[in-house]
Automatic annotation (TrEMBL):
It comes from Hymenobacter jejuensis. NCBIfam families: moaA. Its EC number is 4.1.99.22. Monomer and homodimer. This is GTP 3',8-cyclase. The gene is moaA. Pfam families: Mob_synth_C, Radical_SAM. Keywords: 4Fe-4S, GTP-binding, Iron, Iron-sulfur, Lyase, Metal-binding, Molybdenum cofactor biosynthesis, Nucleotide-binding, S-adenosyl-L-methionine. Pathway: Cofactor biosynthesis; molybdopterin biosynthesis. Belongs to the radical SAM superfamily. MoaA family. It is an enzyme of class 4 (lyase).
Length: 329
């Protein structure tokens, strides 16, 4: 198993297959969108497969496909099938906004995809359209119920935003009463491409938990994996669970086992760093697998202890955070 310089195992890569998205969530990007990368600057599927194979040789066992929106990129399902054939990769999952996902669910079942994270900040169509700047809630809900019918585990990711969707916390949590779904509430982060600053956090993980406890008095913490980002809770009589991810407070950094590869091939060993290795340059400048492996291991041995240290290491000109669409969710 591969370890970083703080003794944390690295066994999970979040792989962004595109920076493009078909929604325009205001907490992720400005209304006009972001400047997307030219296609030639994105990693090809073949390049991504090569990197994943190298990482698998180092001990990475899990791949989560992210974006942008993964299904915006053509031929995603054949790519997933090829990833599943890489020796050492035991778990492939994906994060999607659900707009384009439903037609692909039978193929996801065939490929053994066990978990899908569905980005869904509200169950109200008007608020959904305001937050995402697109009227696509019916398509997302079609995907949600189709995934459940297919027996694929669904985790709903809801970003909690003051003055935008806090009235949705209870309705979203209520989904767990009759459905085997995990609803995770995520602190808002500053990765918005410059559309606004998330300096103050009125709804942090403590307030989210207190709010849920007021409406669900029996809410209680349950055991989770050591590397989990969410603190998980059960509600008596509910089939599913709720979770809270302290993404801005960064309470889980000490056990983080994740690394990220952006769509343009930048390695991020922390969500809050500025990128620590240009993997695309190595791939396209003729580096051997052994040389790439050595570069990756070296980067892992200089990993920040937590998100606050990673943020402090950012150059002054990079203190305004990029869009989550370019990082990979």
């Amino acid at each position: 198993m591969l370890y970083d310089n703080h003794g944390r195992p690295l066994e999970y890569v979040r792989l962004a297959v595109t920076d493009r998205c078909n929604l325009r969530c205001f907490y992720c990007m400005p209304a006009e969108g972001i400047q997307y990368l030219p296609k030639r600057e994105l990693l090809t599927y073949e390049e991504m497969e090569r990197v994943v194979a190298i990482l698998a040789g180092l001990g990475v066992r899990k791949v989560r496909l992210t974006g942008g929106e993964p299904f915006v990129r053509r031929d995603l399902v054949p790519f997933i099938e090829r990833l599943s054939q890489i020796e050492g990769i035991h778990d492939i999952s994906l994060t999607t906004n659900g707009v384009l996902t439903a037609p692909h669910i039978p193929e996801l079942m065939r490929l053994g995809i066990r978990t899908v994270n569905l980005s869904l900040d509200t169950l109200d169509r008007t608020r959904f359209a305001r937050i995402t700047r697109r009227d696509e809630l019916p398509a997302v809900m079609d995907t949600f119920f189709a995934l459940l019918s297919a027996g694929i585990r669904v985790k709903i990711n809801a970003v909690v935003m003051d003055g935008q969707n806090t009235e949705d916390l209870v309705p979203l949590a209520e989904l767990t009463r009759e459905l085997p779904v995990d609803v995770r509430f995520i602190e808002e982060m500053p990765f918005n491409g410059g559309s606004h600053d998330a300096v103050l956090l009125p709804w942090n993980h403590v307030r989210i938990r207190e709010h849920l406890s007021q409406h669900f008095p029996g809410l209680h913490a349950i055991p989770t994996d050591a590397s989990a980002t969410a603190t998980e809770y059960a509600i008596p009589g509910h089939m599913g669970t709720v979770g809270i991810i302290a993404a801005y407070s960064r309470t889980f950094c000490g056990t983080c086992n994740r690394i990220r590869l952006t769509a343009e091939g930048g390695l991020k060993t922390c969500l809050y760093d500025q990128g620590v290795l240009d993997v695309r340059a190595l791939l396209r400048n003729g580096s051997t697998d052994s040389e790439i492996r050595e570069a990756l291991v070296s980067a892992f041995q200089h990993r920040a202890a937590n998100g606050f240290e990673a943020e402090q290491r950012r150059p002054l000109h990079q203190l305004s955070f990029e869009s989550m669409s370019t990082i990979g969710g």
